[in-house]
What does this fold into?
Amino acid sequence: MNDLAPLLTPEGRALLDDVRGTAPADELAVATRLRREHPAELVSAALGQARLRQRAVAKFGAEDAERMFFTPNGVEQSTRASVAAYRALRLKARGVTSVADLCCGIGGDAIALARAGIRVLAVDRDPLTAAAVRANADALGLAGLIEVREADVTEIDTASYDAVFVDPARRGGRGRVFDPEAYSPPLSWAVQAALKAPHAALKVAPGIPHEAVPAQAEAEWISDGGDVKEAVLWFGGTAPGAVRATLLPGPRTLLGRGLPDPGVRPVGRYLYEPDGAVVRAHLVAEVAQEVEGGLVDSTIAYVTSDSLHATPYASAYEITDQLPFNVKKLKALLRERGVGILTVKKRGSAVEPEELRRKALPKQHGPHSATVFLTRVAGAPTMLIGAPVRAVTGAGPS
It folds into this structure.
Protein backbone atom coordinates (compact mmCIF):
# COMPACT_ATOMS: atom_id res chain seq x y z
CA MET A 1 0.00 0.00 0.00
CA ASN A 2 1.81 3.11 -1.22
CA ASP A 3 -1.09 5.38 -2.16
CA LEU A 4 -4.14 6.28 -0.11
CA ALA A 5 -5.88 8.15 -2.92
CA PRO A 6 -7.86 5.13 -4.26
CA LEU A 7 -9.23 4.47 -0.78
CA LEU A 8 -10.47 8.07 -0.52
CA THR A 9 -12.70 7.71 -3.59
CA PRO A 10 -16.38 6.78 -3.19
CA GLU A 11 -15.56 3.25 -4.38
CA GLY A 12 -12.67 2.95 -1.94
CA ARG A 13 -14.70 4.23 0.99
CA ALA A 14 -17.50 1.81 0.16
CA LEU A 15 -15.02 -1.05 0.13
CA LEU A 16 -13.64 0.03 3.51
CA ASP A 17 -17.16 -0.12 4.92
CA ASP A 18 -17.65 -3.54 3.36
CA VAL A 19 -14.47 -5.08 4.82
CA ARG A 20 -14.76 -3.50 8.28
CA GLY A 21 -14.19 -6.07 11.01
CA THR A 22 -13.10 -8.83 8.62
CA ALA A 23 -11.40 -11.60 10.58
CA PRO A 24 -8.01 -12.81 9.28
CA ALA A 25 -9.45 -16.26 8.61
CA ASP A 26 -12.14 -14.75 6.36
CA GLU A 27 -9.91 -12.47 4.29
CA LEU A 28 -9.39 -14.88 1.40
CA ALA A 29 -13.12 -15.50 0.94
CA VAL A 30 -13.93 -11.80 1.24
CA ALA A 31 -11.20 -10.86 -1.23
CA THR A 32 -12.39 -13.46 -3.72
CA ARG A 33 -15.94 -12.13 -3.53
CA LEU A 34 -15.01 -8.47 -3.83
CA ARG A 35 -12.56 -8.93 -6.71
CA ARG A 36 -15.47 -9.93 -8.93
CA GLU A 37 -16.64 -6.31 -8.89
CA HIS A 38 -13.59 -4.25 -7.88
CA PRO A 39 -9.92 -4.02 -8.95
CA ALA A 40 -7.77 -6.55 -7.12
CA GLU A 41 -5.28 -3.89 -5.95
CA LEU A 42 -8.06 -1.79 -4.44
CA VAL A 43 -9.51 -4.79 -2.62
CA SER A 44 -6.08 -5.67 -1.22
CA ALA A 45 -5.55 -2.07 -0.12
CA ALA A 46 -8.95 -2.00 1.62
CA LEU A 47 -8.27 -5.26 3.46
CA GLY A 48 -4.83 -4.01 4.45
CA GLN A 49 -6.31 -0.79 5.80
CA ALA A 50 -8.93 -2.80 7.70
CA ARG A 51 -6.17 -4.78 9.40
CA LEU A 52 -4.36 -1.59 10.36
CA ARG A 53 -7.55 -0.10 11.76
CA GLN A 54 -8.10 -3.17 13.90
CA ARG A 55 -4.56 -2.84 15.29
CA ALA A 56 -5.07 0.88 15.89
CA VAL A 57 -8.11 0.39 18.15
CA ALA A 58 -5.82 -0.20 21.14
CA LYS A 59 -4.26 3.24 20.68
CA PHE A 60 -7.08 5.35 19.26
CA GLY A 61 -10.28 3.63 20.35
CA ALA A 62 -12.76 1.99 17.98
CA GLU A 63 -14.68 5.15 17.07
CA ASP A 64 -11.63 7.03 15.76
CA ALA A 65 -9.69 4.02 14.45
CA GLU A 66 -12.56 2.96 12.16
CA ARG A 67 -12.56 6.39 10.50
CA MET A 68 -8.83 7.03 10.31
CA PHE A 69 -6.21 6.02 7.74
CA PHE A 70 -2.98 4.33 8.74
CA THR A 71 0.37 3.15 7.49
CA PRO A 72 2.09 0.13 9.08
CA ASN A 73 4.80 2.29 10.64
CA GLY A 74 2.20 4.85 11.63
CA VAL A 75 0.27 2.36 13.74
CA GLU A 76 3.45 1.06 15.35
CA GLN A 77 5.00 4.42 16.19
CA SER A 78 2.00 6.65 16.86
CA THR A 79 1.24 7.96 20.33
CA ARG A 80 -1.59 6.43 22.33
CA ALA A 81 -4.52 8.87 22.23
CA SER A 82 -4.74 9.21 26.02
CA VAL A 83 -1.05 10.19 26.24
CA ALA A 84 -1.32 12.64 23.34
CA ALA A 85 -4.39 14.24 24.93
CA TYR A 86 -2.57 14.66 28.24
CA ARG A 87 0.39 16.34 26.52
CA ALA A 88 -1.91 18.61 24.53
CA LEU A 89 -3.63 19.77 27.71
CA ARG A 90 -0.27 20.56 29.32
CA LEU A 91 0.59 22.78 26.36
CA LYS A 92 -2.83 24.43 26.41
CA ALA A 93 -2.45 25.16 30.12
CA ARG A 94 0.66 27.15 29.24
CA GLY A 95 -1.38 29.36 26.94
CA VAL A 96 -0.13 27.72 23.75
CA THR A 97 -2.43 28.38 20.76
CA SER A 98 -0.25 27.12 17.89
CA VAL A 99 2.19 24.23 17.56
CA ALA A 100 4.63 23.11 14.88
CA ASP A 101 4.36 19.31 15.05
CA LEU A 102 7.59 18.07 13.48
CA CYS A 103 7.82 14.40 12.45
CA CYS A 104 4.04 14.21 12.84
CA GLY A 105 3.58 10.61 11.68
CA ILE A 106 -0.03 9.75 10.85
CA GLY A 107 -1.22 12.63 13.01
CA GLY A 108 -2.05 11.23 16.44
CA ASP A 109 -0.50 14.17 18.27
CA ALA A 110 -1.82 16.72 15.78
CA ILE A 111 -5.33 15.35 16.36
CA ALA A 112 -5.00 15.68 20.14
CA LEU A 113 -3.64 19.21 19.84
CA ALA A 114 -6.42 20.27 17.48
CA ARG A 115 -9.06 18.79 19.77
CA ALA A 116 -7.60 20.95 22.54
CA GLY A 117 -8.27 23.96 20.33
CA ILE A 118 -4.66 24.42 19.24
CA ARG A 119 -3.75 25.29 15.64
CA VAL A 120 -1.23 22.78 14.24
CA LEU A 121 1.32 22.67 11.45
CA ALA A 122 1.91 18.95 10.89
CA VAL A 123 5.15 18.17 9.05
CA ASP A 124 6.46 14.89 7.68
CA ARG A 125 8.72 14.22 4.73
CA ASP A 126 7.09 10.93 3.71
CA PRO A 127 4.37 11.50 1.06
CA LEU A 128 2.19 8.57 2.18
CA THR A 129 2.39 9.65 5.82
CA ALA A 130 1.50 13.23 4.94
CA ALA A 131 -1.46 11.96 2.92
CA ALA A 132 -2.62 9.95 5.94
CA VAL A 133 -2.51 13.04 8.17
CA ARG A 134 -4.62 15.00 5.67
CA ALA A 135 -7.12 12.17 5.42
CA ASN A 136 -7.30 11.84 9.20
CA ALA A 137 -7.77 15.55 9.79
CA ASP A 138 -10.60 15.53 7.28
CA ALA A 139 -12.19 12.32 8.61
CA LEU A 140 -12.27 13.67 12.17
CA GLY A 141 -13.49 17.14 11.23
CA LEU A 142 -10.23 18.86 12.20
CA ALA A 143 -8.98 20.03 8.80
CA GLY A 144 -9.62 23.64 9.79
CA LEU A 145 -7.04 23.40 12.59
CA ILE A 146 -4.43 21.13 11.01
CA GLU A 147 -2.23 22.28 8.14
CA VAL A 148 -0.19 19.44 6.66
CA ARG A 149 3.13 20.06 4.98
CA GLU A 150 5.23 17.43 3.21
CA ALA A 151 8.78 18.60 3.94
CA ASP A 152 12.04 17.96 5.75
CA VAL A 153 11.50 19.14 9.32
CA THR A 154 15.00 20.64 9.44
CA GLU A 155 13.92 23.18 6.83
CA ILE A 156 10.79 24.42 8.63
CA ASP A 157 10.70 27.93 10.10
CA THR A 158 8.86 27.64 13.43
CA ALA A 159 9.27 31.26 14.54
CA SER A 160 5.57 32.07 14.18
CA TYR A 161 4.42 29.23 16.46
CA ASP A 162 3.96 29.31 20.23
CA ALA A 163 5.43 25.83 20.64
CA VAL A 164 7.34 23.09 18.89
CA PHE A 165 6.63 19.39 19.32
CA VAL A 166 9.17 16.92 17.95
CA ASP A 167 8.71 13.17 17.78
CA PRO A 168 11.89 11.83 16.15
CA ALA A 169 11.82 8.42 14.48
CA ARG A 170 13.29 5.85 16.85
CA ARG A 171 13.30 2.88 14.51
CA GLY A 172 15.81 2.03 11.83
CA GLY A 173 16.31 -0.81 9.41
CA ARG A 174 17.41 -3.06 12.28
CA GLY A 175 14.64 -2.18 14.71
CA ARG A 176 14.57 0.15 17.70
CA VAL A 177 17.22 2.83 18.02
CA PHE A 178 18.50 3.39 21.57
CA ASP A 179 21.13 6.08 21.02
CA PRO A 180 19.34 9.48 21.07
CA GLU A 181 21.82 10.79 18.52
CA ALA A 182 20.74 8.00 16.16
CA TYR A 183 17.15 9.28 16.19
CA SER A 184 15.93 10.85 12.96
CA PRO A 185 16.44 13.75 13.38
CA PRO A 186 19.02 13.43 16.18
CA LEU A 187 18.11 14.55 19.68
CA SER A 188 20.71 17.32 19.55
CA TRP A 189 18.91 18.88 16.57
CA ALA A 190 15.54 18.54 18.31
CA VAL A 191 16.92 20.27 21.42
CA GLN A 192 18.18 23.20 19.36
CA ALA A 193 14.77 23.49 17.69
CA ALA A 194 13.15 23.43 21.13
CA LEU A 195 15.39 26.16 22.51
CA LYS A 196 14.32 28.51 19.70
CA ALA A 197 10.64 28.29 20.68
CA PRO A 198 8.79 29.83 23.66
CA HIS A 199 7.59 26.33 24.58
CA ALA A 200 8.57 22.86 23.38
CA ALA A 201 8.03 19.19 24.04
CA LEU A 202 10.27 16.43 22.70
CA LYS A 203 9.02 12.86 22.74
CA VAL A 204 11.82 10.39 23.47
CA ALA A 205 12.13 6.72 24.36
CA PRO A 206 11.42 5.95 28.05
CA GLY A 207 14.80 4.26 28.28
CA ILE A 208 16.70 7.49 27.60
CA PRO A 209 19.67 7.73 29.99
CA HIS A 210 19.19 10.49 32.55
CA GLU A 211 22.59 11.89 31.65
CA ALA A 212 21.32 12.46 28.09
CA VAL A 213 18.56 14.80 29.30
CA PRO A 214 19.55 18.42 28.53
CA ALA A 215 20.09 20.64 31.55
CA GLN A 216 17.49 23.11 30.22
CA ALA A 217 14.70 20.52 30.17
CA GLU A 218 12.19 19.07 32.56
CA ALA A 219 11.99 15.29 32.09
CA GLU A 220 8.68 13.48 32.45
CA TRP A 221 8.05 9.76 32.22
CA ILE A 222 4.48 8.73 31.39
CA SER A 223 2.71 5.41 31.92
CA ASP A 224 -0.82 4.50 30.87
CA GLY A 225 -2.64 1.71 32.66
CA GLY A 226 0.63 0.64 34.26
CA ASP A 227 2.60 0.42 30.99
CA VAL A 228 5.41 2.94 30.46
CA LYS A 229 4.76 4.65 27.13
CA GLU A 230 7.29 7.44 26.69
CA ALA A 231 9.39 10.20 28.15
CA VAL A 232 8.90 13.86 27.32
CA LEU A 233 11.45 16.65 27.55
CA TRP A 234 9.74 19.98 28.28
CA PHE A 235 11.25 23.38 27.55
CA GLY A 236 10.00 26.86 28.43
CA GLY A 237 7.64 27.62 31.30
CA THR A 238 9.09 24.78 33.36
CA ALA A 239 11.80 24.17 35.92
CA PRO A 240 15.05 23.08 34.26
CA GLY A 241 16.28 19.84 35.75
CA ALA A 242 12.90 18.91 37.23
CA VAL A 243 11.85 15.25 37.05
CA ARG A 244 8.35 13.86 37.25
CA ALA A 245 6.47 10.60 36.73
CA THR A 246 2.90 10.82 35.45
CA LEU A 247 0.40 7.98 35.62
CA LEU A 248 -2.62 7.81 33.34
CA PRO A 249 -5.54 7.67 33.61
CA GLY A 250 -5.68 10.47 36.10
CA PRO A 251 -3.34 12.11 35.68
CA ARG A 252 -1.40 11.49 38.87
CA THR A 253 1.99 13.20 38.91
CA LEU A 254 4.88 12.53 41.29
CA LEU A 255 7.49 15.28 41.36
CA GLY A 256 11.08 14.53 42.21
CA ARG A 257 12.23 16.06 45.48
CA GLY A 258 15.92 15.26 45.18
CA LEU A 259 15.82 12.62 47.89
CA PRO A 260 18.81 10.37 48.55
CA ASP A 261 18.53 6.68 47.75
CA PRO A 262 16.46 4.87 50.38
CA GLY A 263 18.21 2.52 52.73
CA VAL A 264 17.97 -1.26 52.68
CA ARG A 265 15.88 -2.86 55.41
CA PRO A 266 14.45 -6.30 56.24
CA VAL A 267 11.32 -7.35 54.38
CA GLY A 268 8.26 -6.11 56.23
CA ARG A 269 4.62 -7.05 56.04
CA TYR A 270 4.05 -5.14 52.80
CA LEU A 271 5.88 -4.94 49.49
CA TYR A 272 5.35 -2.00 47.16
CA GLU A 273 5.98 -2.34 43.44
CA PRO A 274 6.49 1.20 42.04
CA ASP A 275 4.89 2.04 38.71
CA GLY A 276 7.28 1.72 35.76
CA ALA A 277 7.21 5.49 35.15
CA VAL A 278 8.34 6.04 38.74
CA VAL A 279 11.20 3.59 38.29
CA ARG A 280 12.28 5.13 34.97
CA ALA A 281 12.18 8.61 36.50
CA HIS A 282 14.38 7.43 39.40
CA LEU A 283 11.74 8.45 41.93
CA VAL A 284 11.62 5.26 43.99
CA ALA A 285 12.94 7.22 46.96
CA GLU A 286 9.86 9.46 46.85
CA VAL A 287 7.61 6.38 47.01
CA ALA A 288 9.67 4.91 49.85
CA GLN A 289 9.21 8.10 51.82
CA GLU A 290 5.45 8.07 51.22
CA VAL A 291 5.07 4.53 52.53
CA GLU A 292 7.66 4.87 55.31
CA GLY A 293 9.70 2.08 53.79
CA GLY A 294 13.06 1.03 52.47
CA LEU A 295 14.50 -1.17 49.73
CA VAL A 296 14.76 -4.95 49.89
CA ASP A 297 18.10 -4.63 48.09
CA SER A 298 20.19 -1.63 47.10
CA THR A 299 19.91 -2.54 43.39
CA ILE A 300 16.21 -3.53 43.26
CA ALA A 301 13.23 -1.18 42.90
CA TYR A 302 11.02 -2.99 45.42
CA VAL A 303 10.05 -1.05 48.53
CA THR A 304 9.07 -2.76 51.78
CA SER A 305 7.28 -1.40 54.81
CA ASP A 306 5.64 -2.63 58.01
CA SER A 307 2.54 -0.53 57.38
CA LEU A 308 0.00 -0.09 54.60
CA HIS A 309 -0.21 3.31 52.93
CA ALA A 310 -2.44 4.60 50.15
CA THR A 311 -0.35 5.66 47.15
CA PRO A 312 -1.22 5.73 43.45
CA TYR A 313 2.43 5.37 42.54
CA ALA A 314 2.95 1.76 43.61
CA SER A 315 0.98 -1.48 43.89
CA ALA A 316 0.86 -2.92 47.40
CA TYR A 317 1.20 -6.61 48.26
CA GLU A 318 0.90 -8.32 51.62
CA ILE A 319 3.83 -10.70 52.04
CA THR A 320 3.18 -13.99 53.81
CA ASP A 321 6.41 -15.90 53.16
CA GLN A 322 10.08 -15.25 52.44
CA LEU A 323 12.14 -18.16 51.12
CA PRO A 324 15.58 -18.63 49.56
CA PHE A 325 15.16 -19.39 45.87
CA ASN A 326 14.19 -23.06 45.69
CA VAL A 327 11.62 -24.43 43.25
CA LYS A 328 10.87 -27.55 45.30
CA LYS A 329 10.15 -25.52 48.44
CA LEU A 330 7.92 -23.17 46.47
CA LYS A 331 6.01 -26.08 44.94
CA ALA A 332 5.46 -27.62 48.36
CA LEU A 333 4.23 -24.33 49.80
CA LEU A 334 1.81 -23.78 46.91
CA ARG A 335 0.42 -27.30 47.30
CA GLU A 336 -0.02 -26.75 51.03
CA ARG A 337 -1.88 -23.47 50.41
CA GLY A 338 -4.07 -24.90 47.62
CA VAL A 339 -2.77 -22.42 45.05
CA GLY A 340 -3.88 -22.98 41.47
CA ILE A 341 -3.32 -19.50 40.06
CA LEU A 342 0.23 -18.16 40.33
CA THR A 343 1.41 -14.72 39.26
CA VAL A 344 5.17 -14.46 38.90
CA LYS A 345 6.96 -11.11 39.02
CA LYS A 346 10.67 -10.55 38.94
CA ARG A 347 13.34 -7.91 39.38
CA GLY A 348 16.95 -8.93 39.61
CA SER A 349 16.33 -12.56 38.65
CA ALA A 350 17.26 -14.43 35.48
CA VAL A 351 14.48 -17.01 35.94
CA GLU A 352 11.70 -16.88 33.34
CA PRO A 353 8.25 -16.51 34.96
CA GLU A 354 6.58 -19.02 32.64
CA GLU A 355 9.24 -21.63 33.34
CA LEU A 356 8.85 -21.21 37.10
CA ARG A 357 5.05 -21.33 36.87
CA ARG A 358 5.24 -24.58 34.89
CA LYS A 359 7.62 -26.19 37.37
CA ALA A 360 6.12 -24.91 40.62
CA LEU A 361 2.36 -25.23 40.19
CA PRO A 362 1.03 -28.52 41.59
CA LYS A 363 -0.65 -30.86 39.11
CA GLN A 364 -3.75 -30.86 41.26
CA HIS A 365 -4.60 -27.17 41.13
CA GLY A 366 -6.22 -25.59 44.15
CA PRO A 367 -8.78 -22.76 44.24
CA HIS A 368 -6.50 -20.08 45.67
CA SER A 369 -4.13 -17.59 44.05
CA ALA A 370 -0.75 -16.18 45.03
CA THR A 371 1.95 -13.85 43.75
CA VAL A 372 5.62 -14.74 43.94
CA PHE A 373 8.38 -12.16 43.55
CA LEU A 374 11.69 -13.43 42.27
CA THR A 375 14.24 -10.94 43.49
CA ARG A 376 17.25 -10.36 45.69
CA VAL A 377 17.03 -9.48 49.35
CA ALA A 378 20.27 -8.02 50.69
CA GLY A 379 22.05 -9.60 47.73
CA ALA A 380 20.64 -13.14 48.10
CA PRO A 381 18.27 -14.72 45.53
CA THR A 382 14.92 -14.78 47.28
CA MET A 383 11.26 -15.64 46.75
CA LEU A 384 8.65 -13.43 48.39
CA ILE A 385 5.13 -14.86 48.38
CA GLY A 386 2.01 -12.85 48.99
CA ALA A 387 -1.12 -11.34 47.48
CA PRO A 388 -2.11 -7.93 46.14
CA VAL A 389 -3.92 -5.54 48.46
CA ARG A 390 -7.08 -4.85 46.50
CA ALA A 391 -8.17 -1.72 48.31
CA VAL A 392 -5.98 0.55 50.37
CA THR A 393 -7.74 2.61 53.02
CA GLY A 394 -6.61 4.68 55.93
CA ALA A 395 -3.99 7.35 56.30
CA GLY A 396 -1.13 7.92 53.97
CA PRO A 397 -0.15 10.49 51.36
CA SER A 398 -1.23 10.11 47.76
The longest strand covers residues 314-324. Confidence is low (pLDDT under 50) at residues 393-398. DSSP finds 13 helices and 18 strands in the chain. The two ends are 49 Å apart (CA to CA).
